[in-house]
Amino acid sequence: MRFVVQHKKASYINFLIIMYSIGAYFFIFSFTLYKYLSKELFPKDILLSLKGNPEEFLEPKSLLSIMESLHIELFLLLILYITLFSIFIRTIFSETFKINTLFFGAVLILFYVLSIFGTKYLSDYFSNIYFISLIGFSVYSFAVNTINIYCFLMGKVK
Amino acid sequence: MRLLFITFLIFSFLFIFQIFTGIYLYIEKYGFSYSSASEYILGNEEKFINPKTFYGLLKLNFPHFLAIFLVVFVLSHFLYFFKIKNFYFFIAGMAFSFGFLDIISSFLMLKSQIFSYLKIISFLGFEISLFVILFILVLNIFIKLRTQSTENQ
User: Fold this and answer.
1) What residue in A sits closest to B4 (Cα-Cα)?
2) What's the structural domain count of chain A?
3) Which ipTM value was assigned to this complex?
């Protein structure tokens, strides 16, 4: 009887995690698509958006506007990060691998935030870091999400 | 457990950036004076600031009802993994209440300017209580990680 109850409980949490992970895929795809469509994905695009172009009469993005979009994006990315990792730490991988993956994700988010200000105020070079960190985080969260689904479907969890 | 604590620690560190963007936006829009806060909501013809409508405030604030409560819940639920003290109830309660008042005060300002004080106080209260929760969390994690490493030795 106890086994049946616990088995039911485990199946239920697996079901919830898999449903959430499917939703997370949609978020990752739509976030990247949104960045592409709002012309803030590629290094050239972000440079144009942040610094403007007098020849094309394009106004540079103000600090207030940057902060407004960053306030929302950072919130969403952090919620994605903490939920993906709350699941990921239950998988069977070694602790060292999990810690490294955890830090890698944090570094990507940190670089993403800082590179916006770097591009605006320091050097155009930071637009490349912006692009790499943004695409990097999308690929990274996609990979972690896939690992989560695989491990929970195959029962490879602690 | 160690991994869980490291996750909390990294999340808390990154969350400080989120708090700073919120503080910047508040200073730019409302400011900490009675006049600047009421000007943002009620408008000022001389400064070409349009008065806000109920619909405009609702559009801006409805995601905050979820976001603020979610953030306070996520941060304060980390404390569940440590020995629960009465103070945790108090500080989490403060964060929830100030967060709610911070949102609702913008709507109340449409009725009376006097609620500008409530806006300023509730914003400060909300940010301070978030920082206190983060501080307690980080302190507890460090103590726990230190104890664990001493036990392992």
Assistant:
1) A89
2) 1
3) 0.72
Is B71 near chain A, with CB under 8 Å? yes
Tokens (6 digits) for A144: 């972690």
Contact A85, B21 (CB under 8 A): no
Amino acid identity at A71:
H
- CA A70, B27, B44: angle at the middle one, nearest 5? 115
pLDDT tens track for B22-72: 999 999 989 898 888 888 888 888 888 888 888 888 878 878 887 888 888
User: Given CB atoms, is B16 within the 8 Å cutoff of chain A?
Assistant: no
**Residue B142 CB coordination number (10 Å):** 12
* Structural domain span for residue A21: 2-154
Q: Chain A partners of B24 at a C-beta cutoff of 8 Å?
A: 67
Extract long-range pairs of A20-24: CB within 8 Å, 24+ residues apart: A20/A83, A20/A87, A21/A87, A21/A145, A21/A148, A21/A149, A21/A152, A24/A80, A24/A83, A24/A84, A24/A141, A24/A145
Mean pLDDT of B126-146: 91
Is the pLDDT at A3 greater than 60, yes or no? no
Residue B43 is predicted with a pLDDT of 86
- Which residues on B lie below 8 Å from A106 (Cβ)? 10, 13-14
* Range list of H helices, chain A: 2-37, 43-51, 63-88, 95-121, 126-154
CA A53 to chain CA centroid, nearest Å: 30
Buried b / exposed e over A139-154, threshold 16 CB at 10 Å, is ebbeebbebbbebbee
Kindly report the nearest CA distance between residue B15 and chain A, in angstroms: 7
Assign B2 a pLDDT band (cuts: 50, 70, 90).
confident
Q: Which residue has the higher pLDDT, A6 or B58?
A: B58
